[in-house]
Amino acid sequence: xxxxxxxxxxxxxxxxxxxxxxxxxxxxxxxxxxxxxxxxxxxxxxxxxxxxxxxxxxxxxxxxxxxxxxxxxxxxxxxxxxxxxxxxxxxxxxxxxxxxxxxxxxxxxxxxxxxxxxxxxxxxxxxxxxxxxxxxxxxxxxxxxxxxxxxxxxxxxxxxxxxxxxxxxxxxxxxxxxxxxxxxxxxxxxxxxxxxxxxxxxxxxxxxxxxxxxxxxxxxxxxxxxxxxxxxxxxxxxxxxxxxxxxxxxxxxxxxxxxxxxxxxxxxxxxxxxxxxxxxxxxxxxxxxxxxxxxxxxxxxxxxxxxxxxxxxxxxxxxxxxxxxxxxxxxxxxxxxxxxxxxxxxxxxxxxxxxxxxxxxxxxxxxxxxxxxxxxxxxxxxxxxxxxxxxxxxxxxxxxxxxxxxxxxxxxxxxxxxxxxxxxxxxxxxxxxxxxxxxxxxxxxxxxxxxxxxxxxxxxxxxxxxxxxxxx
Length: 472
Ligand code: HEC
Ligand SMILES: [Cu+2]
Fold this sequence. Notes:
Structural class: alpha+beta
Distance between the termini: 84 Å
CATH topology of the largest domain: Immunoglobulin-like
CATH superfamily of the largest domain: Cupredoxins -  blue copper proteins
Strand content: 25-35%
Bound molecules: heme C, copper (II) ion
Largest sheet: 6 strands, mixed
Low-confidence stretches: 1-27, 345-356
Mean pLDDT: 90
Shape: elongated
Helix content: 10-25%
């Protein structure tokens, strides 16, 4: 009796699983045909398409153009970029795991060269490169299934590949996991790339691509989002304190690995290599060319956070910096500024000795005298003695003598707030002075030499460098 029941159970199970199998085959066939068609809306970086709310697969149509465009790589410096969608990095594609992607690549008729696309999210030969290789004025289509979730780089793979990538031909495709991604308040899309121009960093005019520099892996520029200053000044990224920020960061290369770091923040989570697992409490994460990472953090204190490649001469001498400007109320229990006071030994002569490397001839004192009389004397008085409690003295000023070269900052950017000079308290506003590098260096040297028994401390080049640093 027992055995008969058992056998019957097995037969029933076999039948049942057979039916399930049939049903699921039918289901697959039905979904393939019935997949809703969605045309991807592409937006310019650092923006990206909105998070996916769908709970089922779709056929996502992506119309991606290839555009060769001349534009600024740095203020006053132009470069011929080759792009996906007109931007560097190329427009981000966002799909859901299990989606079918119908990719249309259009090589605009106005272009000069053949191009194609290799997407690292594709399972198949060349990532689509062979099928999409087309001359200007043509369109190629291919379809792939987004099998695995993750953040993937795409790039042009037309020979010479390094050159096409060096000219800006890379972007990313985000394949969201089926269950979706946790909600955040801000999402940004940033890619680093190395650029090889015939002229030096920030040399003016239209610059050509330098193949030898590329082969030697000696870039002139290392940039976030394709331009020096693409993420600074007016174009800085923004967030409010307490908001959850997620950055999709990738490296197009073609050559340099990025040590991606945000100065003033700790990543709560890093989805290393753009994969599905995360590490917590990370300071700097390594991203290879053709690779990516997803970082998440909550800025808690207002101010500027600085995105850098922590290979720092790339950041400070080749352009790899961006800003995230954080707004919100101060959080003194997390971060508060104390006072800066000179150590006793630093207040006197030794400091002057440290900063005495500038020759007298670098900036003529006569020029400094002229600037002083024309600009500064109105407030600080012609002999630099100031007005007690209103305009601090520049002559024999202990504040000035402490770090004379830093006074250039005050001249360029102004100063306000608490100030103690020679024991007297001030709380006024000194407006920023619109002077060129020569004049700033000249007036500071003049004040230091003629009014503070010091030596020349600044050259115009040093002032220019100070401006670059301040820009960050
Ligand atoms: C419109 C009035 C005004 C002009 C013009 C002006 N300053 Fe000032 N300056 C001030 C005030 C006010 C302060 C104090 C600001 C504070 O309280 O933070 C100040 C502070 C300073 C300080 C720091 C304090 C000290 O005494 O060492 C320096 C250095 C300085 N000024 C240099 C200059 C130089 C150089 C020029 C000319 C290129 C100049 N200022 C032009 C009003 C002026
Ligand atoms: Cu190309």
